[in-house]
């Protein structure tokens, strides 16, 4: 069964979610895991893309915007349904994507101080109501 992790951020900044997503994606990449960042809007997708290119002053996180797995690329991003079946899904969308169960792990990031908390609660209930074990991580 897919592992579901909720990261609850206490940072009131609106950009906190995307900053944390990129930081986590980099950590997963460094641990040799395949990562897919999903968004349901192109503005967020392109912000994440830009952050991945500039994550560090002396390096970047190799990635590609693609709805299909790329064997040469450890990290993909898309707003479309993803056809991959492994690795970690970081969901930056407002709803649970239909393909979430294809991944071994799903990461949901919620900013407890921002307007997206209502959508986060809905996603939490979605997984809970389907019997998934939910792991919560408070990030200060």
Question: What do these coordinates show?
Answer:
Helix content is 29%, strand content 24%. It has 140 residues and is of the alpha/beta class. It has a single domain (3-139), classed as 3-Layer(aba) Sandwich (Rossmann fold), CATH 3.40.50. It has a seven-stranded parallel β-sheet with strand order 3-4-2-5-6-1-7, with helices on both faces. Helix 1 (16-30) packs across helix 2. The relative contact order is 0.27. The model has no long low-confidence stretch (mean pLDDT 93).
Q: Please write the CATH class name.
A: Alpha Beta
Largest sheet features = 7 strands, parallel
Order of helices and strands: EHEHEEEEHE
Percent helix: 25-40%
Rg, Å, rounded: 14 Å
CATH superfamily: DNA polymerase III subunit chi
How many distinct folded domains?
A: 1
Weakly predicted, low-confidence segments: none
- Mean pLDDT, to the nearest integer, reads 93
**Helical element count?**
3
Strand order of the largest sheet: 3-4-2-5-6-1-7
CATH topology: Rossmann fold
The helix-and-strand class reads alpha/beta
Strand content: 15-25%
Short description:
With 140 residues, this protein is of the alpha/beta class.
Primary descriptors:
140 residues; Rossmann fold; 7 strands; alpha/beta; seven-stranded parallel sheet; 29% helix
Please write out the topology.
Layout: E1 3-9, H1 16-30, E2 35-38, H2 42-53, E3 64-65, E4 75-78, E5 88-91, E6 105-111, H3 117-129, E7 134-139
Parallel strand pairs: 1-6, 1-7, 2-4, 2-5, 3-4, 5-6
Helix pairs in contact: 1-2
């Amino acid at each position: 069964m897919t592992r579901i992790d909720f990261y609850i951020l206490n940072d009131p900044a609106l950009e906190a979610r995307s900053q944390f997503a990129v930081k986590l994606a980099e950590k997963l990449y460094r641990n040799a895991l395949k990562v897919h960042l999903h968004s349901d809007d192109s503005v967020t997708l392109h912000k994440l893309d830009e952050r991945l290119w500039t994550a560090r002053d002396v390096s970047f996180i190799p990635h590609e915007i693609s709805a299909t797995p790329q064997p040469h690329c450890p990290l993909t991003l898309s707003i479309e349904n993803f056809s991959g079946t492994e690795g970690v899904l970081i969901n930056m969308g407002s709803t649970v994507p239909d393909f979430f169960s294809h991944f071994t792990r799903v990461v949901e990031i919620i900013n407890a101080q921002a307007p997206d908390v209502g959508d986060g609660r809905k996603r939490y209930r979605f997984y809970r109501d389907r019997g998934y074990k939910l792991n919560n991580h408070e990030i200060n």
